[in-house]
Specification:
By secondary structure, the chain is of the alpha+beta class. It has an 8-stranded mixed sheet. Strand 9 and strand 10 form a beta hairpin. It is globular, with a radius of gyration of 21 Å. The model has no long low-confidence stretch (mean pLDDT about 90).
């Protein structure tokens, strides 16, 4: 798409139509007329623009992490442009928090440490509980109980950028927790909104393989045959040790379902039915964050670890200062590791010249935009394993008339 064509795009409508929204919610924050609302569909979160109120200012497009795909994508782009910082294996010193978290409780422990010392007033997090537990609620946790309610992974669509509207209304210092696309949305918003740059004092991103639809969770629960989604009041995707268990709770905290993460929800929820945008992602390692966190997936850890540790990479000075503060004051227990070890825990998410992601992106550009210049890159990668995966996923999305719903 040439420069003149770019200038004609004045809102995120094409992002929605071309099915590359990641549901981060950044567009709902920047809109000067408040004409963009986030819709929580049966499958995904997505924005809806009130065209009668839209001023066509284009600000929503400028903060969208998916906008680059409208103009084409270089299938040869690399995933690791930055030099990695210090890396650690970390766990929370509080054994209860460590046990209940997804992987060692580092993020929860870091938030609690910084709140206790008065360095932050709260954290932007999410939880899956209440009358609609399939919808992850993004909110600002301002006390210990609220932070603990958000503990653990969420394998449904999450839109943490939406909570930044409250940050703009209530001055303070906050930690932002999110996937790489949410962190990118936050970073772009900060370029236009100085208040967010001042108030978000730390960002923590996840190493992310993709965000599954909420219908995957619903089907997994109901296919058990013993639980109705109407009776569910809280969903815990991880916790109870490491790698953890998938648990569903009803009224008064009653346990309705309990399945292992490995061989259970990992297969049937985590790896199923991702946003199409996830198949066209070049940042699985949260390059815009201060700290990036992942599970340390190795055979040795799987054999020996039962409570959990988080693999952590520091990307900025303030990220390093925050972790070192937690270690010095005893809230976090850490051992240094090399960057190579950090990358080895999720090697399949390091995108190099051999990764099938390049063919998936070429397929998307061919099918959705009919850009024939991507034929040559596609032929180049046809021999790469899993190319057919990208073709099937892209075609399914292209013909799905109710993609988000």
């Amino acid at each position: 798409m040439n420069k003149r064509a770019k200038l004609k795009i004045k809102s995120i409508d094409p992002i929605i139509r071309q099915k590359i929204c990641c549901g981060c919610g950044a567009c709902t924050v920047i809109c000067p007329t408040s004409c963009i609302n986030l819709i929580y569909g049966q499958k995904y979160n997505f924005p809806q623009v009130d065209s009668d109120r839209c001023s066509s200012c284009g600000k929503c497009l400028k903060v969208c992490p998916s906008a680059f795909l409208l103009y084409g994508a270089d299938p040869g782009s690399a995933d690791e442009p930055q030099e990695p910082g210090d890396c650690y294996l970390v766990h929370c010193a509080d054994e209860r928090v460590r046990l209940d978290a997804a992987s060692g409780g580092f993020i929860t422990g870091l938030i609690l440490h910084l709140m206790d010392k008065g360095a932050v007033d709260g954290a932007i997090v999410a939880r899956c509980e209440g009358e609609t537990p399939l919808i992850a609620e993004s909110f600002i946790a301002r006390n210990r109980d609220a932070v603990l309610s958000s503990c653990g992974s969420k394998y449904v669509p999450v839109s943490n950028c939406t909570a930044l509207r409250e940050v703009l209304q209530r001055p303070g210092r906050y930690i932002f927790i999110g996937t790489p696309c949410m962190i990118e949305g936050l970073t772009k918003l900060q370029n236009f909104m100085p208040a967010l740059k001042e108030r978000i004092v730390l960002s923590v991103g996840f190493v992310c393989s993709g965000m599954a639809s909420r219908i995957s969770t619903k089907n997994y629960i109901e296919n058990d045959g013993k639980v109705s989604i109407r009776d569910v009041r809280r969903i815990a995707y991880r916790g109870d040790g490491w790698p953890g268990r998938f648990r569903v709770f009803g009224k008064n905290g009653s346990l309705l379902m309990d399945r292992p993460y490995i061989g259970g929800s990992l297969v049937h929820v985590v790896s199923r039915d991702h946003y199409l945008r996830c198949e066209n992602c070049l940042d699985h390692w949260a390059h815009f964050s201060d700290i990036v966190v992942s599970d340390p997936w190795t055979a040795q850890m799987m054999k020996n670890e039962t409570i959990g540790r988080s693999a952590v990479m520091v990307r900025t000075r303030r990220g390093k200062e925050s972790i070192e503060s937690g270690i010095r004051q005893g809230g976090l227990i850490a051992d240094p590791i090399t960057a190579e070890e950090m990358f080895s825990f999720n090697r399949h998410l390091v995108i190099d010249s051999r990764h099938p992601r390049h063919s998936w992106m070429a397929i998307y550009q061919l099918i959705f935009f009919r850009r024939m210049r991507y034929l040559l890159p596609l032929f180049k990668y046809l021999a790469v394993k899993r190319t057919i995966t990208g073709l099937r996923t892209t075609l399914n999305a292209f013909f799905d008339k109710k993609y988000y719903l």
